[in-house]
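Quick start: what a row looks like.
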Amino acid sequence: MMKRRILVFAAVTIAAPVVGTGLARGNATAPVRIASATAPNDSVPIIVGTPGPTRVTMRNVYFYQAEGVILHIRSLDGEMNSVKRGVVDFDDKFSYILSIDTGEVTLSSADLTNLMNKYVFAYPGAPLKNLKVSLRGTSLGLSGTLHKGVNIPFDITSSVSMTPDEKMRLHPTKIKIFGVDGAVLMRALGINLQKMLDLSKAKGVFVQGNDLLLSPLEVLPPPRIKGRIATVKVGPDGLEQVFAPAGGAVRLGDLSVPDSTYRNYMLYRGGTLHFGKLFMTDAELFVRSE
């Protein structure tokens, strides 16, 4: 494994877990934990900042979305828009929205497992528990326990695609319930997953027939992310998502970097940034890793 440098820079902070933004070489195999989180900061003084969004470019960055959920960003171009006092505050995950124009982002099976257990199905009475996501060639595996009066162990292998209305569809190609062919069993009983799963209290996920549909950005914990996922597939490193502007939309221009040979970096330009004791107006911040 190649050496990585820890960059003590942007703590995108949430109430309790460790969150932050880390840089690593493009072929690194493990993220770097870099910052301890504190409670969202509502005491940032009101200042006269530079209006407008902060443009952002990232290459080969591990973005700590929340405890156990890391976005492996190969590339990202977009902007951050403040929703509090005109400041993009890295110490407050609720202070801004990250809008992705173009990008390539991967979630590993471990990240997806944590996302399912700690955030998507973490509410009281959730019908799915002890979930585990796995990579099965070009398909996604989901196993766990379905609570329907009794605990029912299940294992589903699904193809993954995007619908025209930008939902991620998990379409089962193989279902096992109690270790037997679940598709045959459900047909015999005249039921499907939609009849078995009550997801009325779930956020950003519902069932249609035997298909599980998710709003992939809505199920993520803060900070809020917006963008259009054009394509999705299961690759060797996880669930790969490609962002692109909607048809006819004007793509944001590229931000120039000091040296085009740099592979691992973050560049922020414009607007007002805050982290720690530092304020930057008309921001120009470039962070890179060797």
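That is the whole record. The helical segments are 109-120, 182-189, 193-196. The two ends are 14 Å apart (CA to CA).
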